[in-house]
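Supplementary notes for students who missed Thursday's class. We covered one full example, reproduced here. Read the sequence, then the structure, then the short commentary at the end.
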Amino acid sequence: MAIIIKKVSSKKELKTFIRFNYELYKGNPYSVPDLYDDMLGTFSPKRNAAFEFCEADYFLAYNNNKVVGRVAAIINKRANETWNKKEVRFGWIDFIDDIEVSEALLNTVARWGKERGMEAMVGPLGFTDMDAEGMLIEGFDQLSTMSTIYNFPYYPQHLEKLGFEKEADWVEFKLTVPDKLPEKFVRISEIILQKYKLRIKKLKRKEIKTKNYGQKIFDLINEAYAPLYGYSKMTQRQINQYIKMYLPLIDLRMVSLVEDENSELIAVGISMPSLSEALQKAEGKMLPFGWYHLLKALFFKKPKVLDLLLVGVKPEYQSKGVNALLFYDLVPVYQQMGFKYGESNPELELNKKVQSQWSAFESVQHKRRRAYKKML
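Structure (token representation):
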């Protein structure tokens, strides 16, 4: 088959780029589509603050004038400087089950990266850690989440045939919300509160701005996530963008903060009702009725599953049991709101500190995703 690769160079082609994923996975019971407007913002240098330190182009693969694949080529200069690497990222990759298509797409990213002095190719990764990352390699029969990628089982098979090797793995857990917190968990949590002179803080809407808690939360995330694979610290413009985009949507009952005796923020846990089924019903569109399904899931008829979006603990308090305090606070909230299960979302395979926090709960590792690497 004659595969032609074209760089996206118009609004119409960008729409085709975004919509290809929806068409490829239409009717799939496990795939969760992104909102089209969110994707437009992600790929726009004017709207996405990551373009302060990122460079990107998008490519479509055609066969007989029909789109058969897509990929984004990205260089995160900030991450490369942080980790002393010269890597080009491939992201938002989708393709039909034909290795000529996947090879043509990845070869395009390789050439693009080499032209810019890169020495290796890694992915799937987005612009930053706030984008979905990793290719699903286990859990193809599990419903995806709003912050992760779903892909067909043949994707990793193609990459391995093309010489890509494991760079990093993330694991995901399905957690059962207990009917009652274990007594040992409660006792340990109360000891930790007293030992380190900590307190649990419930956030009020006005405090996000008046007491600068939006800034405090993302400053903490920057500090807590700094050692993690490929992480590049969020800039102030990114932080402002995330505060504006996400915090208004969060039910503050599902946010837990831990502060020390000086009211310094040392831990944060942010969760929300799962939007997976609502996004499937919306089919990637807010109009005409997509907004209804999302608002219903967020504020009215909540699903039985919640998503754990962010958990961060100040480095000097990690391994001291402080993250237990977040769930000491949140689990009773989950019970009251009627949630039965939680999705952990991706955690690095080697991050045992994070995974240890699930030992007090009934949990099962049900998904695994991988970042692949190939030298150029």
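Commentary. The chain is about 35% helix and 25% strand. The mean pLDDT is 92. If anything here is unclear, bring it to office hours.
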